[in-house]
ABC transporter ATP-binding protein (Geotalea uraniireducens), 248 residues
Amino acid sequence: MIKLVDVEKSFDSQVVLNKLNLEIPAGKITAIIGPSGEGKSVLLKHMIGLMKPDSGTVFVEGEDITVMRRHVLNRVREKFGMLFQNAALFDSMTVFENVAFPLEEKTSLSRLEIRDKVHEALEHVGLKGVDRKYPDELSGGMKKRVGLARALLLNPRIILFDEPTTGLDPIICRAIHQLIKDTHTRFGFTAVIVSHEIPEIFDISDNVAMLYRGRIIEMGTPEAIQRSEQPVVKQFISGSLEGPIQFV
Ligand SMILES: Nc1ncnc2c1ncn2[C@@H]1O[C@H](COP(=O)(O)OP(=O)(O)OP(=O)(O)O)[C@@H](O)[C@H]1O
């Protein structure tokens, strides 16, 4: 589905991705974990072609997106939905307008059809009657739900989630995870979730990949990752201060 082969990315002298290899299976939920600043967001941006590797290849459904012209890449990007860290809502638009935006941009649906689709999407994420509110008037969890409704709207084959629950309380965090799981079961997209919610993210993931020093050092089921004997993985999952991971 998504395959990265020997991907290298540096910013000036800082190597962020170092011959990274990763295969994201189709139709599953894959979590990417790893210490802060290791390059998880950079990795997501390579998957959707927002960043180009210095070398190496990124395949999306068998197509090498690193050599594509912009208009071809834009076509591939239509397979993706993305939920950004801050939900990335437009503050000057109502909830309705925010969710309707991709439909207005990318389809020729009538106003009535758009209205129905937006209402349906908001209902899927458990938000009714907030159409006319502005993002400022919503809680953090509600904003994430609006972002998720918008990401789901074009029925994408792949959804990338960049820290979908950061800054939310544990109950809302669980509710958002459950919502991701439920919508995944219902729509069957391929999901990649960058998350710091350990161990909670394991409950909804089929696979977990750990990024460290520019590479995926281990990938497996949540159970396998939790049983890992690899010292970096062990330390990270337990949150221990003792071990190979150094703090600045
Ligand atoms: N456009 C850019 N230009 C220069 N450096 C960048 C750019 N984007 C990311 N970086 C650097 O790449 C490194 C990885 O950043 P990234 O945001 O991917 O980390 P992360 O693992 O997602 O962190 P966190 O868990 O804290 O969100 C950081 O050192 C960051 O400063």
Q: What stands out?
A: The chain has two domains: 1-79+157-248, 91-155. Strands lie at 2-11, 14-24, 29-33, 55-60, 63-64, 80-83, 158-162, 190-194, 207-212, 215-220. Residues 11, 16, 34, 36-42 surround adenosine-5'-triphosphate (CB under 6 Å).
